[in-house]
Amino acid sequence: MTELLVACPECDALHERRELAPGAKARCVRCRAVLYRRSRLELDNQLALVTAAILTYLIANSFPIVDLQIQGRSNSATLVGSVLSLWRDGRELVAVLVFATTLLFPLIDLGAMLSLLLITRRGRPTRAFAPLLRFLLTLRPWGMIEVFMLGIVVSLVKLSNMAQVLPGVALWAFGILTVLMAVILSMDLHALWHVAPRTVASLKAPGRPVHR
Amino acid sequence: MNAAPLPPIPPITTAADAGLVACPHCRLVCRDIATDTPTLRGRLRCPRCAGRLHPRKVDSLSRTWALLIAAVILYIPANLFPVMETVTLFGTQDDTILSGIAYFWTSGSPELAILIFSVSILVPLLKLATLSALALSIHRRAAGGTHQRARLFRIVEFVGRWSMLDVFVVALMVGLVHFQGLAVIQAGPGAAAFGAVVVLTMLAAHSFDPRMIWDRARRPAPGKHPSGKHPPGKHHG
């Protein structure tokens, strides 16, 4: 079967697929690109991690990130609040960009991840699996929680010069979420194609795998 | 790390050499029956994920150039227009990306000034330059420096997202500093342009197919006359 072969995504060199030890990576012999990885985490650990990330995401967006005090007046901001302010000020494009990369895409990513892991765990083929995984693969580069976290740090330093800054619950939540996301993103999504229950994709046009 | 794939058997066989195609979505290696039947090109679907099969990214160079040009054009307003407008009792202050960096530099946070200079000025510029140079090298059918070019591309693809930092900082400042009559911060027109530059350069990097670096180095494109000089065919890992 074709799953014995893997082509390097960056230089197209063919390799034979080998079973990896947990935590190991296979690299292309020619260009050193990562071909595939095996996570140290078992399926149930991954599920737990994604669930924790979803809860952290909810906390991070329900509480203020930081409370700012100038001359006895205080103002706190959530991420959603910031997006709304941008929108109200007539910067719709920026608002949409921030909303998509820090709120919408990470949430869809986590939701899709949870569904895919649950489908895999249940072990019964589902039609939705392949489209969902393909969609997630396309979407993934556009979630930018970790960049946003760095943005929070920079803003805090900037504001601490002119006002009193009190960190809010969401600040810590974003910190934890950044770490959780880093672990989740380090899991190889392509590995799911191999462990997932077989689904027969609808073939609209001819296209067949190599039979060896 | 030790569980590497097969040891290298030079010269390396690519999927395209073997008449195979790796699905661009799920990477399943399939037989590329469109090499024999060109009318099927672009109509084949992956048996595993039902995605369209293409041996290389479609119109990779034209798309990369189009996105790069758009990014270069927007780079100008992104740097000239203010990204942030601060209205206080003492008046309005407009900050461009560069003046924001200068502020950090003079207010005692040179580390942050360097960080923001790197991700907001250096990274977009280097990204535009690198992607243009890579695309040009494909046009010129350059054979040398394949490893270096592959590495450059990987770096460009990795660092691009960090340029969004300034957009997020502006968004947070706008959300936080909202003291009517005392101090209000608003996003300037440069912020949208800058965000667009980041997105466009990211899209440009996504459109560029790094496999072209290796394809062109090994042989001329099908249908074209060989350029006369054949690059050395030895590729060790």
UniProtKB/TrEMBL annotation, chain A:
Signal peptide: none annotated. The chain crosses the membrane at residues 47-66, 93-120, 132-157, 169-189. Keywords: Membrane, Transmembrane, Transmembrane helix. It comes from the Bacteria. InterPro entries: PqiA-like (IPR007498). This is Paraquat-inducible protein A.
UniProtKB/TrEMBL annotation, chain B:
GO terms for cellular component: plasma membrane. The keyword Transmembrane helix applies. Its main location: membrane. InterPro entries: PqiA-like, PqiA-PqiB_transport. This is Paraquat-inducible protein A. Residues 218-237 are annotated as: Disordered. Signal peptide: none annotated. Residues 219-237 have a biased composition (Basic residues). The chain crosses the membrane at residues 65-84, 112-138, 159-179, 191-208. The keyword Transit peptide does not apply. It holds the Pfam family PqiA. Keywords: Cell inner membrane, Cell membrane, Membrane, Transmembrane, Transmembrane helix. It is found in: Cell inner membrane.
